[in-house]
UniProtKB/TrEMBL annotation:
This is Tetratricopeptide repeat protein. Keywords: TPR repeat. SMART domains: TPR. Residues 268-357 form the Methyltransferase domain. It comes from Dyella lutea. SUPFAM superfamilies: S-adenosyl-L-methionine-dependent methyltransferases, TPR-like.
Length: 431
């Protein structure tokens, strides 16, 4: 277990195996080998191992909780809920199981039950920083009035008070204040944060996002890397919480209209692959599927999910420029929202596509007839349709289609976006 906790999975797996050779029904070895199997992407094996342990120790709350985690991360929410409830039946004070129960109730959109579960979590564990953070997110995501946003801000403050290392809680305070139209207070939060941590890229970027500093042409590499490395462990869980997230499915569905869905005939790039949510949707059409992301933590998760022939950690524009005419299809779901000026990355994408190849991506939308790219309080950029169409045409693309759709929910409201498809021209000048 010590080797496992230290992150040496090879040695831990070997040692658990040695224990089970000595004692085939040793429940702790079965349990933790199951946890390790899930960490390595062998989730079916994990279920069998932890279930075997529970036949021997049926009232072990941690084993029920970890089995629930496997089901949750595989999207089997009802199975996960049952496991968490069994853990709580064995140990009513098990606040990790209580937290996980709240998550899966929210994911099933049983919002009243989820709120009760989060509230009970805070009562059970009044110093549990992550519990306040979860409740803050819940209140912000489903806010119906200003009071909910105020409560959200207070939860984030409590989270930070109990865990000053959790800078995402400070970011949560700032975003909630901005949404309450208390822009000066939001800016003060980011300034004070930046004074305490002058080298931290997050408050620097968020200060610009609330209009208190000049917006950069795109989010800085260190900001994106810092945010998503810190977010990697809970990224899929956060998306599960918000069942409205549908960018990968909507985007790939649009590309289905113009590219072969199966046959493994295309060289495909998942640009900004994150934890690999697009891989299952792209695998059947890909002769070769490559994923690229700036966050090493996210790429590690994509590697565990599987489905890629190659994964690389790199800045997207430079990586595209280094791979001329390498792909038939480039897909980018919710990545270009961190680019304000799209010209360089679109030109690089055109260069990385073979003539006639397709590019598909999503953006957050701003309405109007002007060419607009603006940084928002979320830290992401929004773009207008004329801006996108103009840059695509100037970058050597044709057959441009821009559709409006809802990509997810935020603060209880739909986030409207553009789902974009374009083909690289066969001629070098785009004619």
């Amino acid at each position: 277990m010590r080797v496992h906790q230290a992150g040496d999975l090879d040695a831990a797996e070997r040692l658990y195996g040695e224990v089970l050779e000595l004692h085939a029904a040793q429940p702790d070895a079965l349990h933790f080998l199951g946890v390790l199997a899930h960490q390595r992407g062998r989730s079916d094996e994990a279920v069998l191992l932890i279930s075997s342990a529970l036949k021997i120790i049926p009232k072990h709350p941690d084993a029920h909780n970890n089995l629930g985690n496997v089901h949750k991360e595989c999207g089997r929410l009802a199975d996960a809920e049952r496991c968490y409830r069994r853990a709580l039946a064995c140990a009513p004070e098990h606040y990790q199981a209580q937290s996980n129960l709240a998550v899966v109730l929210e994911a099933q959109e049983r919002l009243d039950e989820a709120f009760e579960a989060y509230s009970k979590l805070i009562q059970q564990a009044p110093t549990y920083a992550h519990g306040y953070y979860r409740l803050g997110l819940f209140l912000r995501n489903y806010a119906q009035n200003e009071e909910h946003l105020q409560q959200s801000a207070e939860c984030f403050r409590e989270s930070y008070r109990h865990d000053p290392a959790n800078v995402r809680a400070l970011e949560g305070v700032g975003v909630a204040l901005y949404m309450l139209h208390r822009h000066d207070e939001a800016a003060d939060v980011y300034r004070q944060w930046l004074e305490r941590e002058p080298d931290n890229p997050v408050p620097r970027h968020m200060l610009a996002s609330c209009g208190a500093a000049e917006a950069p042409p795109r989010a800085a590499d260190d900001y994106v890397r810092d945010v998503f490395d810190g977010f990697a462990e809970s990224f899929d869980e956060q998306l599960i919480q918000n069942l409205g997230y549908r960018a990968p499915e909507v985007l790939v569905g649009m590309l289905d209209e113009v590219t072969p869905v199966d046959g493994a005939s295309l060289d495909v790039l998942d640009a900004g692959c994150g934890t690999g949510l697009c891989a299952p949707l792209l695998r059947a059409r890909a002769r070769r599927l490559v994923g690229v992301d700036l966050s090493g933590g996210m790429v590690d998760k994509a590697r565990l999910r599987g489905g890629y022939d190659a994964l690389e950690v790199a800045e997207l524009t430079a990586w595209l420029e280094a791979h001329p005419q390498a792909f038939d299809l480039i897909v980018s779901a919710d990545t270009l929202v961190y680019f304000g000026q799209l010209g360089p990355v679109l030109a690089a994408a055109a260069g990385a596509l073979r003539p006639g190849g397709w590019l598909g991506f999503t953006l957050e939308a701003v309405e109007g007839d002007d060419e607009v790219a603006e940084l928002t309080s979320s830290g992401r950029y929004r773009h207008s349709r004329p801006y996108v169409e103009h840059l695509l045409a100037g970058s050597g693309f044709e057959a441009v289609v821009v559709r409006e759709d809802t990509l997810r929910r935020e603060a209880g409201k739909p986030v409207h976006g553009w789902v974009v498809r374009a083909r690289r021209s066969h001629s070098p000048d785009g004619a």
